[in-house]
Specification:
Elements (H helix, E strand, L loop, with lengths): L1 E8 L5 E8 L6 H16 L7 E3 L2 E8 L3 E8 L6 H16 L1 H5 L4 H8 L3 H9 L16 E2 L6 H14 L4 E6 L2 E5 L8 H12 L6 E8 L3 E14 L2 E7 L5 H12 L3 H8 L16 E8 L4 E5 L14 H14 L10 H5 L12 E5 L4 E7 L2 E7 L10
Parallel strand pairs: 6-13
Antiparallel strand pairs: 1-2, 1-5, 3-4, 4-5, 7-8, 7-11, 9-10, 10-11, 12-13, 12-16, 14-15, 15-16
C-alpha cells in the first residue's frame, strides 16, 4: 500500500511539496515532471484528465485557482476516494496560508516555507489511509473522531467560561486527538473547518502554549484568525479561536485560573480512551468493533476495545478490525447517508434514491459487518463470524 500527494505550480511545474505514506520510494523530479506534463498536454488540447487507472492503483489530477495542481497517487489495492483526499489537502493549504497566497504564486520558495507548518496535518490525513496502521487522529478523511464520556457536559461549561474569558468565539477540547467537548458556538463552523482546528491542536508536538494564524477555508479564506492552543495534560489540548488580545502571557494565566481545578475530571475523561464509550455501556462479546456517525455534524466515534476485559476477538488484530470497518464504511455503508458522499455534495441534483435504503451488510467466513441508519445516526458494527446473519440487526 502507498499513498502519495504532490503539489506543483501549474504554470511552471515547480514542485511545492511531496508527502507520502506507505512502502514507496521517494518520487524523483523527473517523475513529477512527467506527471505534470500529462496534465498540461491534456489542457493544451482542451481536455481534462479526470482519472487514470494504473497497475494496482490510480492517479488523479486536480487544479485549484489555475495556479496550484495537486496530484494524488494510490497503489496496493487501497480503497480511497482520491477526489476527497485532494479536497482535504487543498483545505489544509488554505487553512495554513490563505486563499490569496495560493492564487498569486509570486514567491514559490516562500510558499514552500510557509506550507511546512501544515506537514503534520497532511501526514495525519495520509495516515488515515494506511490499512496497516492504527490512525491516531482520524479514521476517515471527512469525519471528526470523538469520545463519548460522562464528563463532556461539565467540560463544555468550563470551556465556554474559558472562551468567554479570552474573548474567543470557538473553542474545543481534545484528548488523544479526539474531540471531547466544544464551545456553544463551535458548530457555526463548517464541519471541515472544525476538523482542521482539531488536527491543528493534535499537531502541536507537545508545545505547552502556541499562537497560530489560520484561515477558515469556507468562512474566511482571505482573513486570518488567531488560534491559541494550550496543553493541559499529556495528550490533552484546548484550542480557542480569538482576537489579537489578550496577549499570550495573559492567556497562560487565564488557562491556569479556568482549568486548574478540573484536572481530576480531565483525567477521568482520559480513561475512556481508547474504548471511547463510557464503561456504563456494555456490548455483546460477538461485537468486535463499532463505528458510530452523527451525519449532520460529521462526527464519529470508533472503538475496537469494546470488551472491558482483555479478551481478544478471534485473533483479529486491532489494525485489521479498523481496516475492515473503514473499508465497509467507504464502499458500502456510506451509501446509506448520501449527505456524506463527497460527489453528492458537489452534485446537488443527483439521484436521492439511495437515501431510502437504511441497512446493508457483509458476510464472510472470517467476519460479518452490518450498518443501519436511524434518522441522523449511522452505525456500523463488526461481528464475529459465528453470529447468524439474521440476528445482526
Amino acid at each position: 500500500m502507498s499513498a502519495i500527494v504532490i503539489a506543483v505550480a501549474t504554470e511552471s511545474g515547480v514542485p511545492i511539496f511531496t508527502r507520502k505514506r506507505g512502502n514507496n520510494e521517494n518520487i524523483q523530479f523527473s517523475t513529477i515532471a512527467s506527471l505534470h506534463g500529462i496534465n498540461m498536454f491534456s489542457k493544451c488540447h482542451n481536455l481534462s484528465v479526470i482519472h487514470s487507472q494504473v497497475e494496482n492503483g490510480s492517479i488523479l489530477w486536480k487544479e485549484y485557482y489555475k495556479s496550484v495542481t495537486l496530484i494524488g497517487i494510490v497503489t496496493g489495492g487501497l480503497e480511497c476516494d482520491l477526489e476527497l483526499l485532494l479536497a482535504c489537502i487543498h483545505d489544509v493549504m488554505v487553512f495554513c496560508v490563505g486563499k490569496k497566497e495560493l492564487e498569486n504564486l509570486k514567491n514559490i520558495d516562500q510558499l514552500k516555507r510557509d506550507l511546512r507548518q501544515c506537514y503534520p496535518i497532511l501526514d495525519y490525513l495520509l495516515e488515515s489511509l494506511d490499512p496497516n496502521s492504527v490512525p491516531s487522529m482520524t479514521l476517515v478523511l471527512d469525519l471528526t473522531q470523538s469520545i463519548l464520556c460522562p464528563q463532556a457536559q461539565h467540560l463544555q461549561q468550563v470551556l465556554d467560561n474559558y472562551a468567554e474569558r479570552v474573548t474567543g468565539r470557538w473553542a474545543c477540547l481534545s484528548i488523544h486527538g479526539h474531540l471531547v467537548a466544544t464551545s456553544s458556538d463551535f458548530y457555526e463552523l463548517d464541519p471541515r473547518e472544525s476538523r482542521l482546528l482539531l488536527l491543528l491542536a493534535a499537531a502541536q508536538d507537545g508545545a505547552p502554549l502556541r499562537d497560530t494564524l489560520v484561515y477558515l477555508p469556507y468562512m474566511s479564506p482571505d482573513v486570518a484568525f488567531r488560534a491559541v492552543t494550550c496543553k493541559l495534560l499529556a495528550d490533552v489540548y484546548v484550542l480557542v479561536v480569538c482576537g489579537a488580545t489578550p496577549a499570550l502571557s495573559q492567556i497562560d494565566e487565564i488557562v491556569l485560573q479556568c482549568w486548574e481545578g478540573y484536572a481530576q475530571i480531565i483525567k477521568e475523561a482520559k480513561l475512556v480512551h481508547p474504548r471511547n464509550f463510557p464503561a456504563s455501556i456494555t456490548f455483546e462479546p460477538c461485537v468486535l468493533g463499532i463505528f458510530l456517525i452523527n451525519i449532520n455534524r460529521r462526527r464519529c466515534v470508533f472503538s475496537r476495545h469494546l470488551q472491558l476485559s482483555n479478551q481478544k476477538g478471534r485473533g483479529m488484530s486491532g489494525s485489521h478490525r479498523i481496516d475492515i470497518l473503514r473499508t465497509f464504511y467507504v464502499t458500502s455503508a456510506r451509501d446509506l447517508a448520501p449527505e456524506l458522499n463527497f460527489r453528492e455534495i458537489l452534485d446537488k441534483d443527483s439521484d436521492e434514491s439511495m437515501g431510502k435504503i437504511t441497512e446493508t451488510y457483509w458476510s464472510s467466513e472470517y467476519h460479518k459487518c452490518h450498518a443501519q441508519r436511524s434518522a441522523n445516526l449511522l452505525c456500523c458494527v463488526l461481528y464475529a463470524p459465528t453470529i447468524p446473519t439474521h440476528t445482526m440487526r
